[in-house]
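lol forgot to send this yesterday, sorry. C-alpha cells for the thing we talked abt
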C-alpha cells in the first residue's frame, strides 16, 4: 500500500513542476503574453515619398518626375524652371540688327506655337554693352519697351570714358529694359525704343529723377534703374520726361524697332542683336553700337499632375 502512495506523490510533484515551469513568451509574473495578429507583424504605414514608383496626390511631374514622368515641354523654348538668370552665351539674331539707316527685319512667319504646345513666351531683355568706334566719351542710354499690354523703361548707368574701339559692359541689374522684375509673359508685337547720350553735363541724375518722378504714381521700380507699368504707353511718357531732362547732354543714338510676336519664341533661346548708328561731321564724326540680349522660356500648354 505504501508503494502506491509513494508513486502517487511522485506523479503529483512532477505535475506541479511542469505547471510551474515558465513557457517561452510568458511574463515574469507567469502571465502569458498575447500574440500579435499575424497581419500586423512586421508591417508599418509609410508616407508617400518621391522615388517610391507611385505618383501620389502630393507629387507632380514638376516635383517628382521619377514617379510621375517628365512634364510636357514647349518645343520652341526652354523650360521655365531655370530661365531667370543671364545665359552664359547667346546666338546672333542677325535679322534684328539695325545698321546706320537700315531698319531691322523682324519675321512675321507663323512659328506654330499652338501646335508645338506652347503658352506665351516669357522674356527678359537687356542692354549688354556699348561700343564706341568713333567719337568717344562717357555715355548712357534710356530704353523703353511695350507690347501694348504692359511697358517698361530702363536707364543704364554711365559708362567710363570710352576711346576709339572701347567697349563698356553694363551690369544686368542696371540695364534690364524688359522683364526687369522677372520673366515677363509677352503676347503681342514688342516695340523697343533706344536713346543713348554722350555726357556733356551733370544731366544723368536729372534724367533719372525725372523718370522716377513720372513713374512714381503709376509704376513700380524693377531693378536698379528700371520701372514697369501695367499700361502699354506709360513707359514712353516717363522716358520722354527723362529725355527732356537730358537737354544738357548730346543725343547720339536714336532707334526704334518692332519685333513681331511670332519671333518672340526664338528670342527665348538666348539671342543678341546690335543697334549701330553714326553721325557728326568731318571734324567730329561718331559711331556707336549697342548690343542687346534676350532670353527666356515658355511653359507647355498642359502640365499634368
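and heres what i got for the seq, position by position
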Amino acid at each position: 500500500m505504501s508503494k502506491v502512495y509513494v508513486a502517487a506523490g511522485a506523479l503529483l510533484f512532477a505535475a506541479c513542476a511542469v505547471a510551474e515551469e515558465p513557457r517561452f513568451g510568458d511574463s515574469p509574473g507567469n502571465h502569458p503574453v498575447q500574440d500579435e495578429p499575424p497581419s500586423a507583424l512586421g508591417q508599418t504605414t509609410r508616407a508617400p515619398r518621391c522615388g517610391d514608383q507611385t505618383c501620389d496626390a502630393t507629387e507632380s511631374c514638376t516635383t517628382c518626375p521619377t514617379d510621375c514622368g517628365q512634364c510636357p515641354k514647349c518645343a520652341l523654348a526652354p523650360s521655365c524652371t531655370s530661365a531667370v538668370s543671364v545665359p552664359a552665351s547667346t546666338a546672333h539674331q542677325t535679322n534684328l540688327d539695325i545698321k546706320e539707316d537700315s531698319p531691322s527685319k523682324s519675321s512675321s512667319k507663323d512659328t506654330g506655337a499652338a501646335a508645338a504646345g506652347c503658352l506665351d513666351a516669357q522674356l527678359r531683355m537687356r542692354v549688354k554693352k556699348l561700343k564706341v568706334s568713333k567719337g568717344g566719351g562717357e555715355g548712357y542710354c534710356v530704353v523703353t519697351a511695350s507690347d501694348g499690354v504692359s511697358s517698361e523703361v530702363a536707364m543704364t548707368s554711365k559708362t567710363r570714358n570710352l576711346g576709339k574701339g572701347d567697349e563698356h559692359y553694363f551690369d544686368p541689374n542696371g540695364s534690364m529694359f524688359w522683364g526687369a522684375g522677372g520673366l515677363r509673359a509677352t503676347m503681342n508685337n514688342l516695340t523697343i525704343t533706344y536713346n543713348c547720350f554722350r555726357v556733356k553735363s551733370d544731366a544723368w541724375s536729372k534724367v533719372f529723377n525725372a523718370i522716377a518722378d513720372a513713374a512714381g504714381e503709376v509704376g513700380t521700380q524693377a531693378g536698379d534703374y528700371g520701372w514697369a507699368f501695367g499700361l502699354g504707353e506709360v513707359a514712353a511718357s516717363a522716358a520722354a520726361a527723362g529725355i527732356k531732362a537730358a537737354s544738357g547732354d548730346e543725343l547720339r543714338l536714336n532707334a526704334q524697332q518692332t519685333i513681331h510676336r511670332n519671333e518672340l519664341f526664338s528670342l527665348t533661346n538666348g539671342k543678341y542683336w546690335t543697334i549701330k548708328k553714326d553721325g557728326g561731321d568731318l571734324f567730329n564724326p561718331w559711331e556707336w553700337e549697342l548690343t542687346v540680349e534676350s532670353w527666356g522660356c515658355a511653359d507647355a500648354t498642359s502640365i499634368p499632375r
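Residues 86 and 243 are 28 Å apart (CA to CA). anyway ping me if u want another try
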